[in-house]
Amino acid sequence: MSGRTKIRTALLGIVVAGGLTVLVGTGLLERADLAASDALYQHVRTPDDDILLMVIDQEALEAIGPYEKWGRDVIAAALETLNQSEEERPAVIGIDVIFSGETDEGADQWLAEMAGRYDNVVTAGLVKFGDRLEEDGNGDYRLASISVTGVDMPYDALQAVTEQGHVNAALDPDGVLRHHLLSIALPDGKEMPSLALAVARRYREIQGGEPLELPPTQPNGLWYLPFCDRAGGFDTSTSLADLVSGNVLTAGKIKGGAGDGAAVGTEAVKEGVPIEARRKNWAGKIVLIGPYEAGLRDSYTTAIDHENPMFGVEYQANAIQAMLWGNYKKEVSDRVQLLLLFAVMLLCLAGYWRRPVRSSTVLWVGLCGGSLLLCRLFYHLGWVFHVLWIPVGATVLYAGCLALNYIQAAMERRHVTNTFKRYVAPEIVNELLKEGTDALELGGKLTKIAVLFVDVRGFTPMSELLKPTEVVGILNQYLTLISRCILKNSGTLDKFVGDAAMAFWGAPLPQEDYVMKAVQAAVDMAEGSQSLSKALMEQYGRTVSFGIGVHVGDAVVGNVGSPERMDYTAIGDTVNTAARLEANAPAGTIYISRAVADALEGRILTTSLGDSVKLKGKKEGFEVLRMEEIL
User: First CA to last CA across the chain, in angstroms?
Assistant: First the structure.
C-alpha cells in the first residue's frame, strides 16, 4: 500500500469513526442503552433492617375506608402509636404524604401536635416546575424553562414543627426512574432537600456517627441511584391499619373533633375493626409511611425492575439506604465517553479493515465482552459508563468491515480472475475457482503435461532496422496471435520471454486430449503467422515467422519461487526438451517429439527426422519429427 493510499485510508477511518461517534452522541441508542445499563448494573442486595415501612395498603383501606375520606387524625394516631414509649420510639419518621392546606381544625391540630411533640418527623412537599418569565436584571424578561413555579408544602402548623423534604421523582426519557433529585433551589433562595436526604441526614445525626456524605450530582441536581431491592423487598409487614386500630381501640384519643366528612375513616376505626396490631421493634430505626396500593397512583417503573412498579415509599427507602451505605455512583460525562468511543472505533477499524475473518471476530468478541466486563468493574468502583456504546459501535464496524472486506475481496478476485484469463483459458480459470485452493498446491505437483515453446524467427534483425515503437507494435501483434491460439485451445500461457512464449496443457487441472490441443495450437500459430507475415512484407518489406516445439511428459507444475514472489509455472526435463525442439525448428516449422507423435498416432501426419537433429542435453537416438498436418 502506497503512502498516499495509507493516508487516504486513515482519513477515511477518522471520518467513519467520527461519524459513528456523532451518531451515538445524538441519543440514537439512548433507550436501548438505558435498558442495558439497568440489566448490567442494578442488582438486588439485602437492605439493612433499620428501615421499616408502615404502609397505606389494601388492608388499611378495608379497615379504615376509602383513602379520599381519611382524616388527618389517622396519621396522627399512627404517630402516637409509633412514639408511645421512649424505648420503642423510631429515630426518624418520614411521611410520604403531602398535607397541604388546612382541612379540619381538630385533626390538623392533633397531627401537628403529634409531629411536634416527638421532633422526629419529616414531612413531604412537592415542587412544581414549568415555564415562567424571569427578569434578566436590565428590565427585560425572558422565558425560563423548567423553573420552579410553586411548592405544595404542609399546612403552616405542621410545617412549623417538622422538617420538609420534596418527593419529586425525575423520570428518564423512557419513563423509568433511575435517578434521585437530591435537592431543589426554591424561589426564596433556600434549598429543599429530598425527603430521603432529610430522613437519612437526620438519622445519621441521631446515630452520632460521621456526617452524611452527599452523593455526587449532575448539574441538574440528579444522582444515579443504585437500587438495593425490588418492589416488595423492604419490610412491609406492618399495615397502617394495625397501628391506627391499636391506638384508637386502646387509647380512644379521637373524640369527634373532626367534621363528619373528614372523620369517616376514623369513625370506621373507632367502631372497631378486629385487627390485632402486629407490633414491631421500630426503636431507633427509620419508619416510612406512605401509599402502598396501586389505586393510590404513587408507583414507578424503576431501573432495578421494569416489570413490577415500585411504590414511592419504597423508592424513598432505596434512596435512604444508598445514602446510608454511601455506595455512590458517578456517571462519566458523555463528552469523555464520546472521546473514548472515538478512540475505540479507530482501533476497531484498524483491527477489522482487510483482516481475516477469524482475527476480526476475535477482536469483536473481545471488545464487546471486555467492554461489558469493564463497565461492571468500573461500576463497582463508582463509575457509570454507557453499556451499549462500545459494543454497538464495534458491532456496526465489524459488520460493515466484514461486508466491505468481502466486497473488496470479491472485486480483487474478479480482477485477478480477469487477469488470469489473459494467461489461462477461461474455462480452466472457472474450474480452478470451483476446485478452490486444492487445485493449486503450494510447491507444485508432478503431473503429465504437453509443453509448447514458440519463438519469432527473424525478429532481431528486423528490430535493428525499425523504430522502437514500430518494433513494439509488430511484437505485440505476434504475441497477440500466440495468446489467442493458446487460449483458444484451452492452454495455460506460462510466460513471454522477449519474442518467445511458453505454454502447457494438462495442468493446473486434468484435460482431455491435452496433447492434441497443444499440437492444434501450434498449427494455428503457423497458419496465423502467414497472413501476418504478408502484411508485414507489404508494410516494411520484411517478414518473420515462427519456430515451434512441442513435447509431452512429466513435469512439476505449481507455484514456484519465494513467499514474496511466486510464479505459476512448469519445470522439469519435459519443459527443457520442448524448448530445445523450438530452438532447433527452422522458420515456419513445428518440431515434435516421438512421445507426442505416439500419443496422436493416426490423427496427425508427421515426417521423422530421426536423430539428425541434435538437441542439447539429449543423448544420441532422440527422435525429432516435423509436424505436417492434422488429419
Answer: 54
Q: What is the per-residue pLDDT across 157-166, written as a single tens digit (0 to 9) for each?
A: 999 999 999 9
Q: State the pLDDT at residue 259.
A: 34
Pairing mode, strands 589-593 and 604-608? unpaired
Q: Which residue has the cell 518494433?
A: 471
Q: What phi, psi does 450 have (nearest 5°)?
A: -105, 130
Task: Work out the angle at residue 334's Cα, subtended by the Cα atoms of residues 333 and 340, and round it to the nearest 5 degrees.
Answer: 100
Least confident of 20-34, 290-304, 552-566: 552-566
* Reported confidence tier of residue 474, pLDDT bands at 50, 70, 90: confident
Half-sphere exposure of 370 (CA within 13 A, CB side): 8
Return the ∠ at Cα 261 (arms to 259 and 265), rounded to 5°. 100
Cα distance between residue 94 and residue 107, in whole Å: 19
Rounded to 5 degrees, φ, ψ at 329 are: -125, 135
Give the 3-state secondary structure of 578-597.
Answer: HHHHHHHCCCCEEEEEHHHH
Q: Is 602 left (phi over 0), alpha (psi -120 to 50) or beta?
A: left
Distance CA(213)–CA(201), nearest Å, equals: 9
Residue 519 neighbours by CB under 8 Å, 6+ apart: 450, 550, 590, 592, 596, 600, 604, 627, 630
For residue 309, is the peptide bond before it cis, meaning its omega torsion is within 30 degrees of 0?
no
pTM: 0.65
Task: Give buried/exposed letters for 27-47 (b at 16+ CB in 10 A, else e).
Answer: eebeeebbbbbbebbbeeeeb
Closest by Cα among 72, 157, 79, 85 to 114: 79
- Is the pLDDT at 396 greater than 50? The verdict is yes
Place of cell 476497531: 348
Using one digit for the tens of pLDDT, what is the confidence trace for 512-546?
Answer: 999 999 999 999 999 988 888 887 777 777 777 88
Integer Cα distance of 143 and 38 in angstroms: 36
Phi-psi group of 498: left, alpha or beta (phi > 0 → left; psi -120 to 50 → alpha; rest → beta): left
Residue 363 CA to chain centroid, in angstroms? 12
Helices (H), 278-356: 312-325, 334-352
The grid coordinates listed for 178 are 433511575
Per the DSSP assignment, residues forming a β-bridge with 52 are 235, 287
User: Given this model, what pLDDT does residue 164 score?
Assistant: 96
How confident is the model at residue 179, as a pLDDT? 96
- Residue type at 457? R
Nearest to 400 by CA among 27, 12, 22, 35: 12
d(C-alpha 109, C-alpha 259), whole Å: 13
Spell out the residues 6+ positions from residue 384 whose beta carbon is closer than 8 angstroms to its own: 37, 41, 224, 329, 330, 331, 332, 378
Q: Mean per-residue pLDDT for 184-200?
A: 92
Question: Which run of H or E residues covers position 167?
Answer: none
CA angle 442, 444, 445 (to 5 degrees): 130
CA dihedral 99, 104, 107, 112 (to 10 degrees): 50
> Residue 195 in contact with residue 180, Cβ under 8 Å?
no
